[in-house]
Amino acid sequence: xxxxxxxxxxxxxxxxxxxxxxxxxxxxxxxxxxxxxxxxxxxxxxxxxxxxxxxxxxxxxxxxxxxxxxxxxxxxxxxxxxxxxxxxxxxxxxxxxxxxxxxxxxxxxxxxxxxxxxxxxxxxxxxxxxxxxxxxxxxxxxxxxxxxxxxxxxxxxxxxxxxxxxxxxxxxxxxxxxxxxxxxxxxxxxxxxxxxxxxxxxxxxxxxxxxxxxxxxxxxxxxxxxxxxxxxxxxxxxxxxxxxxxxxxxxxxxxxxxxxxxxxxxxxxxxxxxxxxxxxxxxxxxxxx
Length: 289
Prior knowledge:
The chain has 289 residues and is of the alpha/beta class.
């Protein structure tokens, strides 16, 4: 019998983020998780990034420092270097972001206890400042495909990429790639494909954080990100089965009329595999949308 915990594979894309890269790496390997494959793909940085990566190379499954076609190309390259079972966990963490010390412990416990859960994301996304200090925690409602395809997570209530984890089986069914034609919203496009395949469970524990700093890719470009997300949503909705879309819209109208989406939970209009779980030690629970 395999005594190892479930494997977690994390890819970090990096390009000239040497100022923050070491903190990112430490937030991953510092958790001491015993079945971790950590891969770093650097796009040929001209700063100190390569030396930092070499410093931690003994802790890495693999790493490369070479020219690529951008962040999402680098992530794809990293995941192609990975391997694992369908039940294993995958994620990526950008070089200027960080996990929390308990992240892998909680994520592994959730996926181990609940084999039907294929992807999760926090309902409490954390924001770091440029110095890596936690400055605020936001709050998200539970996630569901109906709301996503009606635009709920397009301008507000984004799924925090740094706190989203999924099984390799879902990654493979959804195409095993990030779409590189999107400059900023490639994560949003991946979530759209995931929602077509599986339910996303919200976790009430802080799992990761997004660092705000002047050099970041989305700094001052949120309008372009939203524009890309809207275009992605338009493409996906047009491809949806018309009957399914009509059902989504009907549910939305009913919820608005009643004034609260909680009506659906109270009436038990939930996926059959939906559940709420409490853990008195770690304090997390996961819930359906």
